[in-house]
Amino acid sequence: MEVPKTITCVDCGQLAHRLSYPPEEGWEIGDYVAYRCSGCNDRWDLEVCDEDAAPTFVSYASEYRAILEERNRPGGSAKC
């Protein structure tokens, strides 16, 4: 299974680089991968999961990002 070397930080939108070295036997479901953001310096510890699996938690990050993008678009809503 492939794990990306960089991800986008949910907090600030900058690149977060992988801190964890790949295991000798390769990445497996259930492994944890650490990333450090180059913008806000936050650390993200993410669990490797099956790409086809349905999420087991509710995440509002994508909804929040869509609201921000709508507000920043020309003619977008400025309401809170």
Q: Estimate what percentage of residues fall within beta strands.
A: 15-25%
How would a textbook summarize the main sheet?
4 strands, antiparallel
Low-confidence stretches: none
* Helix and strand run: EEEEH
Alpha-beta classification: alpha+beta
Note the gap between the termini.
41 Å
Overall mean pLDDT: 85
Work out the radius of gyration: 16 Å
Please tell me the total number of domains.
1
Overall form: globular
For the biggest β-sheet, the strand order reads 1-2-3-4
Helical fraction: 10-25%
Count of DSSP H/I helices: 1
Verbal overview:
- By secondary structure, this protein is of the alpha+beta class.
- The protein has one domain (6-72).
- The chain has one helix at residues 61-72, and strands at 6-8, 15-18, 32-37, 43-47.
- The radius of gyration is 16 Å and the shape is globular.
